[in-house]
Amino acid sequence: MDEEEEEFAYPLKTDEVSFGDWLRQQMEEKDVSITRLSELSGLTYPGIWNIVEGNTRSPRDETRKRLAKALEARIPKAVEEATEAESNEIPGYEWTTFTPSDLNTIPDQAGVYVFYDITDRPVYVGKSNSTVRGRIKDHSTRFWFKPPLVVTGGFIPVPDKTMCDTIESILIKFLGKHALLNEKGKRRDFEE
Asked: Which of 56, 53, 138 has its CA nearest to residue 97?
């Protein structure tokens, strides 16, 4: 084990090496609370909590870097590789997860997104042909945009407008009435 790997070696209780596991351990070692880390990183308490609890399993690269910088730590290569592997499970698309109430964790790209409730059930499918962050910011004014109904989200960047529309439509059809906030397997009228 070289010096850099040794510096970041840490015991995990499972074989899985996740960013949330690493973050939790760094916070414990440095005696940093979620509240303090929120102040240091500029991310919200719910955004960090979702990562630590494993609800946000593939945070964006920018989010990971902000947290590591705030903790004055470097993310181990194995953790980065595990996070990237999880986000690239769909060939050609990078899947990321985020906290909808924390705009800093939301990608600023065109694509398709899904909101999940407190039980990790998909409750809404949407898309934006310009910026998902802007679209979700619009949602934040809706009466339904709050926990426990909207807790986490998932995103796939899709720059091609036709493909973006197609993927969104397919997901809405598959989920049907189970996507609570999409009307009977269709886009709601407040979609763009």
From this structure: 56
